[in-house]
Amino acid sequence: MARIPLVGPRDAGVLGRLAYAFARRRFGDVPEPFAALRHHPGLFWTAAVAESLTEKVATVLPSRLRELAVYRTATQVGCAWCVDFGEMLWIREGLDADHLRRAAADGAPDDPRFDADERAVLAYADAMTAQPPRVTDAQVADLDARLGHAGLVELTHLVAVENQRARENAALGLRAQGFADSCEVPVRP
Predict the structure, then answer these.
(1) Spans of the chain below 70 pLDDT
(2) Which of 92, 106, 185, 187 has the fewest Cβ atoms within 10 angstroms?
(3) Do 118 and 157 fall within a single domain?
(4) Are both 72 and 155 inside the same structural domain?
(5) How far apart are the C-alpha atoms of 181 and 179, rounded to whole Å?
């Protein structure tokens, strides 16, 4: 249960209700982080714009690597909401859910069921998420060779953003909302 009350549609204001309607149409429900952020309209809109723009421009990496890195980060931080939402996004991409769930396991960066790029991405997500971060020059050089400068920067940005999301959601007590196993969630064409 959330540690603060979530802002319902009645109290979200006209623009908030429009944003909630858009989210319901896109995801099948209003994501609870939206409803928590709605307490601060400026941060709500900042986050909405940033998330939309990031989704639009973060296309250098294959979706499986993007979603794998974000999911691994969410599992390492311990954000149940992010794990649930990440599974939904993975499934919408038409990817194997069991493959994704293996990314949550201890030792995933060494699991031979992941290809070399996936293992490198998982290890990097772990290194960035560790406290303090444990990213090495060798990791960066390896990922730069694999993904190129733009791919490395995209990966780094996505892991950093997921750390922010996951820590914010975990601190606010947001839990899995049922996105991954809800048949109500619309699938992208």
Answers:
(1) 182-189
(2) 106
(3) yes
(4) yes
(5) 6
